Protein backbone atom coordinates (compact mmCIF):
# COMPACT_ATOMS: atom_id res chain seq x y z
CA UNK A 1 0.00 0.00 0.00
CA UNK A 2 1.36 3.40 -1.01
CA UNK A 3 1.54 6.18 1.56
CA UNK A 4 1.30 9.80 0.43
CA UNK A 5 2.41 12.98 2.14
CA UNK A 6 2.10 16.58 0.98
CA UNK A 7 4.60 19.25 2.05
CA UNK A 8 3.20 22.75 1.47
CA UNK A 9 5.52 25.75 1.38
CA UNK A 10 5.37 29.45 0.57
CA UNK A 11 7.75 31.22 -1.83
CA UNK A 12 8.12 34.98 -1.42
CA UNK A 13 9.69 36.58 -4.49
CA UNK A 14 12.44 38.95 -3.42
CA UNK A 15 13.12 39.96 -7.02
CA UNK A 16 11.07 39.89 -10.25
CA UNK A 17 10.77 36.48 -11.92
CA UNK A 18 10.52 35.71 -15.64
CA UNK A 19 8.86 32.30 -16.12
CA UNK A 20 8.90 32.08 -19.90
CA UNK A 21 5.87 30.80 -21.83
CA UNK A 22 5.90 29.33 -25.31
CA UNK A 23 5.06 31.39 -28.39
CA UNK A 24 4.84 35.15 -28.82
CA UNK A 25 7.35 37.59 -30.30
CA UNK A 26 10.82 35.98 -30.56
CA UNK A 27 12.37 39.25 -29.36
CA UNK A 28 10.16 39.36 -26.26
CA UNK A 29 9.37 37.15 -23.32
CA UNK A 30 5.93 36.49 -21.82
CA UNK A 31 5.71 35.02 -18.35
CA UNK A 32 3.47 32.46 -16.68
CA UNK A 33 1.27 33.66 -13.83
CA UNK A 34 2.59 30.95 -11.53
CA UNK A 35 5.81 29.08 -10.76
CA UNK A 36 5.67 25.67 -12.47
CA UNK A 37 6.82 22.45 -10.86
CA UNK A 38 9.45 22.12 -13.60
CA UNK A 39 11.26 25.20 -12.24
CA UNK A 40 11.24 23.84 -8.68
CA UNK A 41 12.34 20.38 -9.85
CA UNK A 42 15.16 21.97 -11.86
CA UNK A 43 16.34 23.86 -8.80
CA UNK A 44 16.60 20.59 -6.85
CA UNK A 45 18.46 18.95 -9.74
CA UNK A 46 20.91 21.85 -9.72
CA UNK A 47 21.50 21.41 -5.97
CA UNK A 48 22.17 17.68 -6.41
CA UNK A 49 24.55 18.27 -9.30
CA UNK A 50 25.88 15.65 -11.67
CA UNK A 51 25.75 12.28 -9.84
CA UNK A 52 28.62 10.89 -11.91
CA UNK A 53 29.21 7.16 -11.64
CA UNK A 54 28.64 6.82 -7.90
CA UNK A 55 25.71 4.43 -7.44
CA UNK A 56 24.39 6.01 -4.24
CA UNK A 57 24.27 9.49 -5.80
CA UNK A 58 22.73 8.14 -9.00
CA UNK A 59 20.01 6.42 -6.98
CA UNK A 60 19.32 9.59 -4.99
CA UNK A 61 19.15 11.67 -8.17
CA UNK A 62 16.71 9.17 -9.66
CA UNK A 63 14.49 9.12 -6.55
CA UNK A 64 14.36 12.89 -6.04
CA UNK A 65 14.34 14.10 -9.66
CA UNK A 66 13.68 11.42 -12.25
CA UNK A 67 11.53 8.90 -10.41
CA UNK A 68 7.96 9.01 -9.10
CA UNK A 69 8.83 9.16 -5.39
CA UNK A 70 8.83 12.98 -5.28
CA UNK A 71 6.51 15.18 -7.32
CA UNK A 72 6.99 18.94 -7.55
CA UNK A 73 3.54 20.50 -7.93
CA UNK A 74 2.99 23.98 -9.32
CA UNK A 75 3.30 26.96 -6.99
CA UNK A 76 0.14 29.08 -7.31
CA UNK A 77 -0.58 32.51 -5.76
CA UNK A 78 -1.36 32.76 -2.06
CA UNK A 79 -4.66 34.57 -1.45
CA UNK A 80 -5.73 35.34 2.13
CA UNK A 81 -3.38 32.68 3.44
CA UNK A 82 -4.64 29.97 1.08
CA UNK A 83 -3.04 28.43 -2.01
CA UNK A 84 -5.26 29.26 -4.97
CA UNK A 85 -5.93 26.92 -7.92
CA UNK A 86 -6.54 27.63 -11.63
CA UNK A 87 -9.99 29.07 -12.25
CA UNK A 88 -12.39 26.55 -13.86
CA UNK A 89 -12.79 27.45 -17.54
CA UNK A 90 -16.52 26.81 -17.20
CA UNK A 91 -17.04 30.01 -15.18
CA UNK A 92 -18.49 32.89 -17.18
CA UNK A 93 -19.68 36.48 -16.67
CA UNK A 94 -22.40 38.36 -18.53
CA UNK A 95 -20.79 40.56 -21.15
CA UNK A 96 -22.93 43.64 -20.49
CA UNK A 97 -22.56 43.60 -16.68
CA UNK A 98 -19.88 45.45 -14.69
CA UNK A 99 -16.65 43.49 -14.35
CA UNK A 100 -16.78 43.72 -10.57
CA UNK A 101 -19.99 41.69 -10.42
CA UNK A 102 -19.92 38.70 -8.10
CA UNK A 103 -22.57 36.54 -9.84
CA UNK A 104 -20.88 33.95 -12.04
CA UNK A 105 -22.45 31.42 -14.44
CA UNK A 106 -21.05 27.88 -14.48
CA UNK A 107 -21.42 26.34 -17.95
CA UNK A 108 -20.73 22.84 -16.59
CA UNK A 109 -24.21 22.91 -15.00
CA UNK A 110 -25.94 23.32 -18.40
CA UNK A 111 -26.66 20.85 -21.18
CA UNK A 112 -27.45 21.82 -24.78
CA UNK A 113 -31.20 21.89 -24.13
CA UNK A 114 -30.88 24.46 -21.34
CA UNK A 115 -27.90 26.47 -22.58
CA UNK A 116 -27.92 30.09 -21.25
CA UNK A 117 -29.31 32.67 -23.68
CA UNK A 118 -27.28 35.70 -22.60
CA UNK A 119 -23.88 36.49 -24.09
CA UNK A 120 -21.12 35.39 -21.74
CA UNK A 121 -17.39 36.07 -21.47
CA UNK A 122 -14.68 34.11 -19.58
CA UNK A 123 -13.66 35.16 -16.10
CA UNK A 124 -10.49 37.22 -16.45
CA UNK A 125 -8.86 36.17 -13.15
CA UNK A 126 -6.49 33.21 -13.46
CA UNK A 127 -6.93 31.70 -10.00
CA UNK A 128 -9.58 30.96 -7.38
CA UNK A 129 -9.39 29.86 -3.73
CA UNK A 130 -11.22 26.52 -3.90
CA UNK A 131 -11.78 25.10 -0.42
CA UNK A 132 -12.32 28.51 1.19
CA UNK A 133 -15.65 29.31 2.84
CA UNK A 134 -15.99 32.20 0.38
CA UNK A 135 -13.98 31.50 -2.81
CA UNK A 136 -12.17 34.54 -4.23
CA UNK A 137 -10.88 35.21 -7.75
CA UNK A 138 -7.40 36.62 -8.21
CA UNK A 139 -4.66 37.29 -10.75
CA UNK A 140 -1.04 37.92 -9.68
CA UNK A 141 0.69 41.18 -10.50
CA UNK A 142 2.61 41.05 -13.80
CA UNK A 143 4.66 43.96 -15.15
CA UNK A 144 6.91 44.46 -18.18
CA UNK A 145 10.06 46.34 -19.18
CA UNK A 146 11.41 47.37 -22.57
CA UNK A 147 15.08 46.65 -23.33
CA UNK A 148 17.27 47.28 -26.36
CA UNK A 149 20.31 45.41 -27.57
CA UNK A 150 23.49 47.51 -27.69
CA UNK A 151 26.77 47.19 -29.48
CA UNK A 152 29.32 46.49 -26.72
CA UNK A 153 32.13 48.36 -28.47
CA UNK A 154 30.16 51.47 -29.39
CA UNK A 155 28.09 51.49 -26.19
CA UNK A 156 24.89 52.24 -28.06
CA UNK A 157 22.42 50.64 -30.42
CA UNK A 158 23.36 50.40 -34.08
CA UNK A 159 21.65 49.45 -37.31
CA UNK A 160 22.64 45.80 -37.01
CA UNK A 161 22.43 45.55 -33.21
CA UNK A 162 19.49 47.67 -32.21
CA UNK A 163 16.77 45.15 -31.43
CA UNK A 164 14.08 46.23 -28.96
CA UNK A 165 12.53 43.51 -26.83
CA UNK A 166 10.15 43.28 -23.87
CA UNK A 167 10.33 41.19 -20.71
CA UNK A 168 7.18 40.36 -18.80
CA UNK A 169 7.78 39.34 -15.19
CA UNK A 170 6.05 38.48 -11.95
CA UNK A 171 6.41 41.42 -9.58
CA UNK A 172 8.59 40.96 -6.55
CA UNK A 173 7.22 40.66 -3.00
CA UNK A 174 4.44 38.31 -4.10
CA UNK A 175 3.73 34.96 -2.46
CA UNK A 176 3.20 31.62 -4.17
CA UNK A 177 2.18 28.38 -2.48
CA UNK A 178 3.81 25.20 -3.71
CA UNK A 179 3.39 21.58 -2.68
CA UNK A 180 5.80 18.64 -2.72
CA UNK A 181 4.10 15.23 -2.95
CA UNK A 182 5.97 12.26 -1.46
CA UNK A 183 5.05 8.64 -2.12
CA UNK A 184 6.48 5.52 -0.50
CA UNK A 185 5.50 2.12 0.80
CA UNK A 186 6.66 2.97 4.33
CA UNK A 187 6.12 6.01 6.54
CA UNK A 188 9.69 5.80 7.84
CA UNK A 189 11.03 6.26 4.33
CA UNK A 190 8.79 9.31 3.87
CA UNK A 191 10.42 10.91 6.92
CA UNK A 192 13.89 10.44 5.40
CA UNK A 193 12.83 11.81 2.00
CA UNK A 194 11.12 14.82 3.60
CA UNK A 195 14.25 15.66 5.57
CA UNK A 196 16.47 15.38 2.47
CA UNK A 197 14.18 17.47 0.26
CA UNK A 198 13.90 20.29 2.79
CA UNK A 199 17.68 20.32 3.21
CA UNK A 200 18.18 20.63 -0.56
CA UNK A 201 15.75 23.54 -0.76
CA UNK A 202 17.67 25.51 1.81
CA UNK A 203 16.41 28.99 2.67
CA UNK A 204 16.21 30.49 -0.82
CA UNK A 205 15.33 29.27 -4.31
CA UNK A 206 16.20 30.65 -7.74
CA UNK A 207 13.35 30.45 -10.24
CA UNK A 208 13.06 31.88 -13.74
CA UNK A 209 15.57 33.25 -16.22
CA UNK A 210 17.71 36.38 -16.81
CA UNK A 211 19.20 36.35 -13.32
CA UNK A 212 22.06 38.62 -14.46
CA UNK A 213 19.57 41.26 -15.64
CA UNK A 214 17.96 41.91 -12.27
CA UNK A 215 15.22 39.30 -12.54
CA UNK A 216 16.09 35.80 -11.36
CA UNK A 217 13.15 35.32 -8.97
CA UNK A 218 15.22 34.96 -5.80
CA UNK A 219 12.62 33.48 -3.45
CA UNK A 220 12.69 32.82 0.28
CA UNK A 221 11.04 29.62 1.51
CA UNK A 222 8.74 29.04 4.44
CA UNK A 223 7.55 25.48 5.12
CA UNK A 224 4.01 24.87 6.35
CA UNK A 225 2.49 21.98 8.27
CA UNK A 226 2.32 18.75 6.26
CA UNK A 227 -1.02 17.66 4.78
CA UNK A 228 -2.69 14.44 3.65
CA UNK A 229 -4.06 16.01 0.45
CA UNK A 230 -3.06 18.72 -1.98
CA UNK A 231 -6.18 20.83 -1.32
CA UNK A 232 -7.84 21.15 2.08
CA UNK A 233 -10.95 22.99 3.26
CA UNK A 234 -14.71 22.55 3.24
CA UNK A 235 -15.39 25.07 0.48
CA UNK A 236 -18.71 26.47 -0.66
CA UNK A 237 -21.59 24.70 -2.39
CA UNK A 238 -20.87 24.69 -6.11
CA UNK A 239 -17.09 24.72 -5.49
CA UNK A 240 -16.78 22.20 -2.66
CA UNK A 241 -14.01 19.56 -2.69
CA UNK A 242 -15.58 16.12 -2.26
CA UNK A 243 -15.06 14.57 1.17
CA UNK A 244 -17.69 11.81 1.08
CA UNK A 245 -18.73 8.72 -0.86
CA UNK A 246 -20.52 9.06 -4.20
CA UNK A 247 -23.88 7.32 -4.51
CA UNK A 248 -25.10 5.54 -7.64
CA UNK A 249 -26.64 7.99 -10.11
CA UNK A 250 -25.00 11.05 -8.51
CA UNK A 251 -23.12 13.62 -10.58
CA UNK A 252 -19.82 15.20 -9.59
CA UNK A 253 -16.93 17.02 -11.29
CA UNK A 254 -13.29 16.45 -12.08
CA UNK A 255 -11.26 19.67 -12.23
CA UNK A 256 -7.74 19.68 -13.67
CA UNK A 257 -5.55 21.77 -11.36
CA UNK A 258 -2.59 21.64 -13.78
CA UNK A 259 -2.11 20.89 -17.50
CA UNK A 260 -2.43 17.23 -18.43
CA UNK A 261 -0.49 15.34 -21.13
CA UNK A 262 -2.01 12.04 -22.31
CA UNK A 263 -1.41 9.71 -25.23
CA UNK A 264 -3.74 7.66 -27.39
CA UNK A 265 -3.47 4.06 -26.21
CA UNK A 266 -3.68 2.75 -29.81
CA UNK A 267 -1.26 5.03 -31.64
CA UNK A 268 1.00 6.12 -28.77
CA UNK A 269 0.79 9.73 -29.98
CA UNK A 270 -0.06 12.66 -27.65
CA UNK A 271 -3.81 13.18 -27.86
CA UNK A 272 -5.74 15.35 -25.37
CA UNK A 273 -9.03 13.68 -26.38
CA UNK A 274 -7.73 10.42 -24.87
CA UNK A 275 -8.17 11.92 -21.40
CA UNK A 276 -11.88 11.07 -21.31
CA UNK A 277 -11.14 7.40 -21.92
CA UNK A 278 -8.47 7.52 -19.20
CA UNK A 279 -10.96 8.95 -16.74
CA UNK A 280 -13.56 6.28 -17.44
CA UNK A 281 -11.02 3.44 -17.33
CA UNK A 282 -9.53 4.73 -14.04
CA UNK A 283 -13.00 4.27 -12.51
CA UNK A 284 -13.26 0.78 -14.07
CA UNK A 285 -16.09 1.98 -16.34
CA UNK A 286 -18.28 2.90 -13.37
CA UNK A 287 -18.68 6.52 -14.52
CA UNK A 288 -19.64 8.24 -17.73
CA UNK A 289 -18.68 11.72 -18.91
CA UNK A 290 -21.90 13.75 -19.10
CA UNK A 291 -20.42 17.13 -20.07
CA UNK A 292 -17.04 18.77 -20.46
CA UNK A 293 -15.79 22.33 -20.67
CA UNK A 294 -12.13 22.25 -21.61
CA UNK A 295 -9.37 24.17 -23.37
CA UNK A 296 -5.95 23.22 -24.70
CA UNK A 297 -2.43 24.60 -24.63
CA UNK A 298 1.01 23.77 -25.98
CA UNK A 299 3.53 22.71 -23.34
CA UNK A 300 7.26 22.13 -23.67
CA UNK A 301 10.31 22.91 -21.59
CA UNK A 302 14.08 23.21 -21.66
CA UNK A 303 16.74 20.76 -20.50
CA UNK A 304 19.45 22.97 -19.01
CA UNK A 305 22.04 20.17 -18.90
CA UNK A 306 21.58 19.19 -22.54
CA UNK A 307 20.86 22.81 -23.58
CA UNK A 308 18.00 21.54 -25.70
CA UNK A 309 14.29 22.32 -25.79
CA UNK A 310 11.94 19.52 -24.78
CA UNK A 311 9.41 18.32 -27.37
CA UNK A 312 6.33 20.51 -27.52
CA UNK A 313 2.96 18.80 -27.28
CA UNK A 314 -0.71 19.71 -26.97
CA UNK A 315 -2.12 19.28 -23.46
CA UNK A 316 -5.49 19.74 -21.76
CA UNK A 317 -5.32 23.06 -19.93
CA UNK A 318 -5.55 23.53 -16.18
CA UNK A 319 -9.08 24.54 -15.17
CA UNK A 320 -10.76 22.12 -17.59
CA UNK A 321 -13.91 20.59 -16.08
CA UNK A 322 -15.50 17.17 -16.63
CA UNK A 323 -18.96 16.41 -15.24
CA UNK A 324 -19.17 12.71 -14.34
CA UNK A 325 -22.12 10.49 -13.44
CA UNK A 326 -21.58 7.48 -11.19
CA UNK A 327 -23.19 4.29 -12.52
CA UNK A 328 -22.19 2.53 -9.29
CA UNK A 329 -21.31 3.71 -5.79
CA UNK A 330 -17.76 5.12 -5.44
CA UNK A 331 -15.98 5.37 -2.10
CA UNK A 332 -14.07 8.39 -0.87
CA UNK A 333 -10.88 6.32 -0.65
CA UNK A 334 -11.14 5.55 -4.38
CA UNK A 335 -11.47 9.26 -5.17
CA UNK A 336 -8.43 10.04 -3.02
CA UNK A 337 -6.35 7.35 -4.72
CA UNK A 338 -7.10 8.87 -8.13
CA UNK A 339 -6.26 12.35 -6.85
CA UNK A 340 -2.98 11.09 -5.41
CA UNK A 341 -1.95 9.33 -8.65
CA UNK A 342 -2.97 12.03 -11.15
CA UNK A 343 -3.26 11.52 -14.91
CA UNK A 344 -0.91 11.33 -17.85
CA UNK A 345 2.79 12.05 -18.25
CA UNK A 346 5.40 14.22 -16.47
CA UNK A 347 3.55 13.91 -13.18
CA UNK A 348 6.83 14.44 -11.35
CA UNK A 349 6.90 18.01 -12.73
CA UNK A 350 3.38 18.81 -11.53
CA UNK A 351 1.41 17.85 -14.64
CA UNK A 352 -1.84 15.87 -14.49
CA UNK A 353 -3.08 17.07 -11.08
CA UNK A 354 -6.82 16.95 -10.40
CA UNK A 355 -9.47 17.63 -7.80
CA UNK A 356 -12.98 16.23 -7.39
CA UNK A 357 -15.75 18.76 -6.75
CA UNK A 358 -19.44 18.53 -5.94
CA UNK A 359 -22.21 18.91 -8.53
CA UNK A 360 -22.11 22.36 -10.19
CA UNK A 361 -24.59 25.18 -9.60
CA UNK A 362 -25.84 27.29 -12.49
CA UNK A 363 -25.10 30.47 -10.55
CA UNK A 364 -22.51 31.03 -7.85
CA UNK A 365 -21.44 34.17 -5.99
CA UNK A 366 -17.69 34.84 -5.86
CA UNK A 367 -15.45 37.54 -4.46
CA UNK A 368 -12.84 39.36 -6.53
CA UNK A 369 -9.61 39.74 -4.60
CA UNK A 370 -7.80 42.88 -5.74
CA UNK A 371 -5.30 43.68 -2.99
CA UNK A 372 -1.66 42.61 -3.21
CA UNK A 373 -1.34 39.32 -1.28
CA UNK A 374 2.01 40.26 0.22
CA UNK A 375 0.52 43.36 1.84
CA UNK A 376 -2.66 41.74 3.17
CA UNK A 377 -1.35 38.29 3.83
CA UNK A 378 -3.10 36.93 6.90
CA UNK A 379 -1.96 34.22 9.24
CA UNK A 380 -4.16 31.68 7.50
CA UNK A 381 -5.53 30.70 10.91
CA UNK A 382 -9.31 30.37 11.27
CA UNK A 383 -11.34 32.47 13.66
CA UNK A 384 -11.58 31.10 17.19
CA UNK A 385 -15.31 30.51 16.86
CA UNK A 386 -14.76 28.40 13.73
CA UNK A 387 -12.28 26.22 15.62
CA UNK A 388 -14.79 25.78 18.45
CA UNK A 389 -17.55 24.82 16.02
CA UNK A 390 -15.29 22.24 14.37
CA UNK A 391 -14.31 20.82 17.76
CA UNK A 392 -17.95 20.43 18.80
CA UNK A 393 -18.91 18.73 15.54
CA UNK A 394 -16.06 16.26 15.76
CA UNK A 395 -16.61 15.58 19.47
CA UNK A 396 -20.30 14.84 18.80
CA UNK A 397 -19.38 12.40 16.03
CA UNK A 398 -16.72 10.76 18.20
CA UNK A 399 -19.21 10.36 21.07
CA UNK A 400 -21.64 8.65 18.73
CA UNK A 401 -18.90 6.42 17.34
CA UNK A 402 -17.75 5.47 20.86
CA UNK A 403 -21.30 4.47 21.86
CA UNK A 404 -21.72 2.32 18.75
CA UNK A 405 -18.32 0.67 19.13
CA UNK A 406 -18.82 0.06 22.84
CA UNK A 407 -22.16 -1.69 22.24
CA UNK A 408 -20.55 -3.83 19.53
CA UNK A 409 -17.60 -4.83 21.74
CA UNK A 410 -19.67 -5.46 24.86
CA UNK A 411 -21.89 -7.79 22.83
CA UNK A 412 -18.90 -10.05 22.12
CA UNK A 413 -17.87 -10.41 25.80
CA UNK A 414 -18.12 -13.80 27.59
CA UNK A 415 -17.69 -14.72 31.28
CA UNK A 416 -18.36 -11.20 32.50
CA UNK A 417 -16.74 -9.95 35.74
CA UNK A 418 -18.93 -8.90 38.65
CA UNK A 419 -20.51 -5.46 38.75
CA UNK A 420 -18.59 -4.64 41.92
CA UNK A 421 -15.25 -5.13 40.15
CA UNK A 422 -16.46 -3.20 37.12
CA UNK A 423 -17.56 -0.41 39.45
CA UNK A 424 -14.07 -0.21 40.97
CA UNK A 425 -12.54 0.17 37.51
CA UNK A 426 -15.09 2.78 36.40
CA UNK A 427 -14.62 4.80 39.57
CA UNK A 428 -10.95 5.19 38.67
CA UNK A 429 -11.93 6.57 35.25
CA UNK A 430 -13.70 9.60 36.73
CA UNK A 431 -10.55 11.70 37.17
CA UNK A 432 -8.18 13.31 34.66
CA UNK A 433 -7.57 11.10 31.63
CA UNK A 434 -3.78 10.93 32.01
CA UNK A 435 -3.99 10.10 35.71
CA UNK A 436 -6.71 7.49 35.15
CA UNK A 437 -4.64 5.75 32.47
CA UNK A 438 -1.56 5.70 34.71
CA UNK A 439 -3.40 4.18 37.69
CA UNK A 440 -5.14 1.54 35.57
CA UNK A 441 -1.79 0.49 34.11
CA UNK A 442 -0.44 0.03 37.63
CA UNK A 443 -3.50 -1.98 38.65
CA UNK A 444 -3.21 -4.27 35.62
CA UNK A 445 0.58 -4.55 35.12
CA UNK A 446 2.29 -3.25 38.28
CA UNK A 447 4.11 -5.12 41.02
CA UNK A 448 2.38 -7.27 43.63
CA UNK A 449 1.59 -4.35 45.90
CA UNK A 450 0.12 -2.14 43.13
CA UNK A 451 -1.75 -4.83 41.20
CA UNK A 452 -5.34 -5.85 41.76
CA UNK A 453 -5.74 -8.86 43.99
CA UNK A 454 -5.55 -12.28 42.32
CA UNK A 455 -9.36 -12.99 42.46
CA UNK A 456 -10.04 -9.71 40.63
CA UNK A 457 -7.29 -10.40 38.06
CA UNK A 458 -8.73 -13.89 37.51
CA UNK A 459 -12.13 -12.38 36.70
CA UNK A 460 -10.62 -10.01 34.14
CA UNK A 461 -8.54 -12.75 32.52
CA UNK A 462 -11.51 -15.15 32.30
CA UNK A 463 -13.60 -12.52 30.51
CA UNK A 464 -13.03 -12.74 26.73
CA UNK A 465 -13.89 -9.80 24.43
CA UNK A 466 -13.55 -8.74 20.82
CA UNK A 467 -11.12 -11.17 19.13
CA UNK A 468 -10.80 -13.50 22.11
CA UNK A 469 -8.43 -11.37 24.20
CA UNK A 470 -9.03 -11.28 27.91
CA UNK A 471 -10.49 -8.08 29.31
CA UNK A 472 -7.23 -7.11 31.06
CA UNK A 473 -5.21 -7.18 27.83
CA UNK A 474 -8.01 -5.45 25.94
CA UNK A 475 -8.07 -2.53 28.40
CA UNK A 476 -4.28 -2.16 28.13
CA UNK A 477 -4.50 -2.26 24.33
CA UNK A 478 -7.07 0.56 24.28
CA UNK A 479 -4.55 2.84 26.01
CA UNK A 480 -2.39 2.92 22.87
CA UNK A 481 -2.92 6.07 20.77
CA UNK A 482 -2.62 4.39 17.37
CA UNK A 483 -5.01 1.62 18.39
CA UNK A 484 -7.76 3.96 19.58
CA UNK A 485 -7.41 6.22 16.52
CA UNK A 486 -7.68 3.21 14.18
CA UNK A 487 -10.56 1.59 16.09
CA UNK A 488 -12.68 4.76 15.96
CA UNK A 489 -11.89 5.41 12.26
CA UNK A 490 -10.65 8.91 13.06
CA UNK A 491 -9.31 9.28 9.51
CA UNK A 492 -12.81 8.87 8.04
CA UNK A 493 -14.30 11.29 10.59
CA UNK A 494 -11.62 13.85 9.74
CA UNK A 495 -12.42 13.57 6.03
CA UNK A 496 -16.18 13.93 6.50
CA UNK A 497 -16.67 16.43 9.31
CA UNK A 498 -13.83 18.96 9.15
CA UNK A 499 -14.56 22.69 8.93
CA UNK A 500 -11.08 24.20 8.77
CA UNK A 501 -9.07 21.27 7.44
CA UNK A 502 -8.77 17.53 7.78
CA UNK A 503 -5.38 18.01 9.42
CA UNK A 504 -6.82 20.24 12.15
CA UNK A 505 -9.25 17.46 13.12
CA UNK A 506 -6.46 14.91 13.30
CA UNK A 507 -4.31 17.19 15.45
CA UNK A 508 -7.21 17.78 17.84
CA UNK A 509 -7.87 14.06 18.15
CA UNK A 510 -4.20 13.21 18.68
CA UNK A 511 -4.06 15.66 21.58
CA UNK A 512 -7.12 14.02 23.21
CA UNK A 513 -6.26 10.38 22.50
CA UNK A 514 -6.03 9.50 26.21
CA UNK A 515 -9.45 11.04 26.80
CA UNK A 516 -10.87 8.92 23.96
CA UNK A 517 -9.34 5.79 25.51
CA UNK A 518 -10.94 6.54 28.87
CA UNK A 519 -14.33 7.24 27.29
CA UNK A 520 -14.32 4.02 25.24
CA UNK A 521 -13.18 1.81 28.14
CA UNK A 522 -15.80 3.35 30.42
CA UNK A 523 -18.55 2.92 27.79
CA UNK A 524 -17.70 -0.78 27.33
CA UNK A 525 -17.64 -1.38 31.09
CA UNK A 526 -20.98 0.42 31.43
CA UNK A 527 -22.54 -1.88 28.82
CA UNK A 528 -21.14 -4.92 30.65
CA UNK A 529 -22.89 -3.73 33.84
CA UNK A 530 -26.18 -3.53 31.94
CA UNK A 531 -25.66 -7.06 30.58
CA UNK A 532 -25.07 -8.36 34.12
CA UNK A 533 -28.26 -6.71 35.37
CA UNK A 534 -30.30 -8.12 32.51
CA UNK A 535 -28.90 -11.57 33.25
CA UNK A 536 -29.85 -11.20 36.97
CA UNK A 537 -33.43 -10.33 36.00
CA UNK A 538 -33.63 -13.31 33.65
CA UNK A 539 -32.24 -15.64 36.32
CA UNK A 540 -34.79 -14.37 38.85
CA UNK A 541 -37.63 -15.33 36.52
In short:
Helix content is 33%, strand content 22%. It is an alpha+beta fold. The strands form eight sheets. A six-stranded antiparallel β-sheet has the order 3-2-12-1-14-13. The chain has a four-stranded mixed β-sheet with strand order 4-8-9-24, with no helix packed on it.
Which properties best describe this structure?
alpha+beta; 541 residues; 4-stranded mixed sheet; 6-stranded antiparallel sheet
| Mean residue pLDDT | 85
Structural class by SSE content: alpha+beta
Q: How many β-strand runs?
A: 26
**Individual helix count:** 15
Helix content: 25-40%
Main β-sheet: number of strands, strand sense, barrel status? Answer: 6 strands, antiparallel
Strand order of the largest sheet: 3-2-12-1-14-13
Overall shape: it is: elongated
Between the first and last Cα atoms, what is the distance in angstroms? 55 Å
Radius of gyration: 29 Å
User: Beta-strand percentage?
Assistant: 15-25%
Which spans of ≥5 residues are poorly predicted at pLDDT below 50?
372-380
